[in-house]
Structure prediction request, 509 residues.
Amino acid sequence: MTRARTTLVVTIVLALLVGIAVYAAIATRDDSTFSAPKPVDAPAPQGLERFYDQKVDWTSCDGARCAWVTVPIDYAKPDGDTTRIRVKVHPGKNAKRSLFVNPGGPGGSAIDFSDRMVSEFGPNVRDMYDIVGVDPRGVGESSPLKCLPPTQFDAFVATDPDPDDDAEVTALRESSETMGAACLKNSGPLAAHVSTVEVARDMDVVRALLGRSKLDWFGASYGTQLGAVYAELFPDTVGRMVLDGAVDPTLDAVESSFAQTTGFQRALEAYAKDCVKKSDCPIGDDAEAGMAKIADLLKQLDENPLKLRDGRQLTEGNAFYGVAVTLYDQETWTYLTQALRAAFAGDGSVLMILSDTYFDRQQDGSYATNGGQVIYAVNCLDAGGKGLSVAETKAQLPRFEKASPVFGSALGWGALGCSDWPIKAANPLPDIDAKGAPPILVVGTTRDPATPYESAQALASQLDSGVLLTREGDGHTAYVSGNRCIVEAVDTYLVKGTPPKDGTVCKES
Prediction:
């Protein structure tokens, strides 16, 4: 499974790890403009009154306001155990609405994302809205899901992603089962209740506690799936909703993996065509031959991992993620060039740094976030326990390998990921059309690797009120890409409520 991540986060982290000095200014607000809200004056869902009407204690936090909100672990048992989620509000100067933001993953911190987005949104948006980050249950500050310890997760990441024999197939299957068992052992009932449906219901609790009759939303990547599920569950309380870098929630495990296969292949082709124009390109002067060279490198690492100075080994699995992470943003292609040049010379250290970046692994061996593990827990619960057999997975591989010699086999086997997940799903994804919701703006990028453009087209058509906005270009998501046409269209929609014409295309800028 590949992570759906926002380009802004990846770019900043990569730059820090590779050694480029970056000053990331985070806009702060005077939290004196924020008055503690009263819960919205509307009936709470039956049985959930104590959550919708709870008293919330707000405290200052880095120029913003923060609070804990209590929600039921299992909404089917509201009198049972509870968990806490963390909310951060960046007050707007003249705010009359609250814009919830989510960076995707699943597993990304919305609180961290809110810190960054206050300096990304236009001034009219920032004045009109409080910017709200709510770490989803199990993520970041919100009772984070605990699964494998760092050393065992290292081994999980290094597992061969495209097994060549029965023993390697067994190892791949056991890695998923071991992860799920660890989540259940170390996190208890919460491990079975981090589905997108349950997170969406948490968002509605927070909306009500902020005194808002409508939920305004900016979701990136997986955050589009979370937003779409909210719109399906609560169409009458949807306000202005932007879904950037859309996920197609109708795709099963095979088709979701295949969509990413085509997306990452498209992005790699764009990188290769750009690289071969340069005199120092490590893959040569022919793009097609260069991609074959990258595929050969991964095969070689499968047979002979590269030893690193710190005692670790760069495996095919590590290299797969190291290549993939640089394709989320055109600005990070230069790091892929550096990594490939070193790897072809027998030095796997740069690719390992990139792989570590993908999973937020720190130099001391710890992980800054649990996103690399949460993604399995959420996706497998969303899938509702549906899984493939090994035979069914193998039958799909030729199609994947034809689509991408570099990524195809690994992503084809990735479709097996939830087949051995040991935690029973109770809240799978619903069918989504969000009938009754106001216009929902779906944004897609034509060469997005992680959430391919076709997924944005599909989601816009599935939503009863979907409006499609297209960015021609490379990289994952559109709003933070620097395309002024996209920014103006999104900001106008958020401020005035008027979406662009369905089918609007923003050219590369």
Remarks:
- Residues 5-28 have pLDDT under 50 and may be disordered.
- The longest helix spans residues 253-275.
- The two ends are 31 Å apart (CA to CA).
- The longest strand covers residues 64-72.
